[in-house]
Specification:
By secondary structure, the protein is α+β, with helices and mostly antiparallel strands. The chain has one domain: Roll (Thiol Ester Dehydrase, Chain A), CATH 3.10.129. It has three helices and six strands, in the order αββααββββ. Strands 1-2-4-5-6-3 form a six-stranded antiparallel beta sheet, covered by helices on one side. The radius of gyration is 15 Å and the shape is globular. The N and C termini lie far apart (32 Å).
């Protein structure tokens, strides 16, 4: 069962289709950890060119899904002090890709906080298909209010 549905997600994330990579928030421990889902059908535009006969989700979009899920950690920790939708800028990524993300699938992202401060978030994230880890990353992003 969803903790946050797509409409609630859009109230927090500034992204919209086709660049919205979180469909559902399953779990959220405020400021600590989050679990999000992105359902991939194979009909997404990026699969048309990456690659036509062998569709694979680009690694940078897997990182984007992890980053978008991570925004909920920051938002949940600072929601009482936010005046408007902040601007989020990904500053640093250290990623390891273990397997390709091939549709159709449900990409699950689990992220946990290393450190949150009002201007920056330091996050560890993993992307999974089923129980198989497909990528992991250390993310640092800045927040401008």
């Amino acid at each position: 069962m969803s903790l946050l549905n797509l409409e609630q997600i859009k109230e927090i994330l500034p992204h919209r289709e086709p660049f919205l990579f979180v469909d559902e928030i399953l779990e959220l421990e405020e400021g600590q950890r989050v679990t999000a889902i992105k359902r991939l059908t194979g009909e997404e535009d990026f699969f048309k060119g990456h690659f036509p006969d062998n569709p694979i989700m680009p690694g940078v979009l897997t990182i984007e899904a992890m980053t978008q899920a991570s925004v909920f950690l920051y938002h949940s920790a600072y929601k009482g002090t936010l005046n408007k939708k902040p601007e989020y800028s990904l500053g640093s990524v250290k990623a390891l890709f273990k397997h390709s993300v091939v549709p159709p699938c449900e990409l699950k992202v689990r992220a946990k906080t290393i450190r949150l401060i009002p201007t920056n978030a330091f996050i560890e994230a993993v992307a999974l298909i089923g129980d198989n880890e497909v990528a992991k990353a250390e993310l640092i992003f800045s927040i401008k209010q």
